Amino acid sequence: MLQEFRDKLRGTTAFILVAILIIPFAFWGVESLFVSGGSSSTAVTVNGKKISELDVTRGMEMQRQALLSRFADIDPTMLSDDQLRKPVIDQLVRGALLTLTAQEQGMAVSHDTFNEIILSNEAFQSGGRFDRGQYEYQLARLGFTPIGYRQVVMDEMLANQLSIGIQMSALVSAPQAQAFSRILLQERSYHYVALPLSRFSEQVDVSDEQIAAYYETRREEFREPDKVVMEYIELTPEVIEQFVDVDETVLRDRFAAMQQDAENAGASWHLAHILVAAEKDDSNQQKIDEISQKLAAGEDFAALAQQYSEDFGSAEAGGDLGTFTPESLPEGFAAALEGVDAGELTDPVETESGTHFIKVLDKSQAQTLVFEEQRPALEQQIRTEQAGEKMALYLERLKEETFNVDSLEHAASTLGLEAKISEPFPATGGSGLARYPQVVNAAFEEDVLEYGYASEVLNVGEQHYVVVKLKELQPEHLPELAVVKTRIEAALRSDQARQLADDAATALLAKIEAGQPLAEAVVEENLDVQTVEGATRFDMRAQPELIESVFGHPSSAELPVSGVVRASDQYLVYTLTESVDVSTADLSAEDATALRQSLTRQQAGRELQAYVESLEEDAKIKVR
Fold this sequence. Notes:
Triger factor/SurA peptide-binding fold; Chitinase A, domain 3; disordered N terminus; single chain; four-stranded antiparallel beta sheet; alpha+beta
């Protein structure tokens, strides 16, 4: 259980570390972030703990980018700061409450745990090994100092330590599991036929008169709002990289520093140990002797660690301590490891904690790097760094060149950039350039829309800048019938096909309810009857709407019972013939355990939510 807790904590923490690194931040350039939170005003205080405006801004951008990555066509108005600020603050408040509560309850995260995760994180590695230069570069790129980054991550680890502890305490009783299994695992058998709309579309004939009538009665539905076509220039580090030439001397110097870091790192050891705690009266000697004898006899080290080790944090993992560099080795271990190879045991080591029996699970020597193998990565790293350094200069030049100009073409040519043309978009935004709320707002500002000025240079993401200028205004208008005729014809055809399908499904259902079996009722329709035996609520053999309807009938319903499901592209007529309850007693031990675990996870989520809500009720929260 303790090891499971540790694994969960480490896994969650690794996700946090990666998330912090890969999520882009939309600020006013990296320079403004270099001291994380140092000069940012306070946005919220939670029981005295301050949450800065910088934290809130970062959280909003993280949420914005996450939504954009998941939903490409999301309404940009849903991504404004006004929309995102409250849910982000709520999330930050909950995290702060969990962190503070964990600290009050005496929980802590060791620096060794943090270091171990940092050393093993691929984002901080070069050539498969931890690279301090890469680590510091990644942090600086995102505006963190090492101390600030450590604090942010360790706060997250503390909050997760408490939340995981609460969730792992959740219990589901056997009667609860039994009651839920009757609902969750119930099996039902049914027959059904599908009436696809395409079957009826062929029977539909849409006339010009119908199209014209549809247009006249629904004219306003086709009205197009004001739309703009924008000329724009984008500026990102990736754009600037094309102007960066990597000097060979700089490249060689960077490789030399990288090689030096690899040599300084020296060997690393993956270790396991068995600890016998120190006793003033040497009453532990018998235990030490017993372990020594069993190890000498070749007994399994991991099993002995589970049996004897008094380091309960590692005992359940067979004594596994993780991987250490020379700098991170526990006191007293370094000398004992001299000359010991992977798979071998050291002599017993005495420390203040007690007697350690140490096994080297794996050992690696300092890596010798090959310049040509590292060249591509180093070139890209230097190119990215230098592009970032040139960003401020290009940004200032972009502002100067686009101020009060008739066209962005000249500014783009002067800077070696490209002036692009957007697709038309309304004030509600859209896709492409119009997915950025900052761009949409600027495009419809008076100076840009009415007077034709170029916008200010807009920050729309992490070192991602855009300036826009009106290319064309497409005023609100009602399109001619010829423009929307195809849309209207498709809508009429769909409506009429759906009505025909509805009539056919209703007629078929009437036959079945009159006592005619489904197979006989569809003979004249030349439809195939599908049979599903023993379906569960999670069955993938039919559409979700059909499963929902089949399982929507109460267990007490007199069978057979039939129904119609109106799906998006077809109608489904079914007859439910059998319903069978399944209890946990009918499950294999493995399935019963999986079910219990699933229920426990759900219960854990509810308990954590209730716990956080109780913390919020008692907290002193001040939003500025």
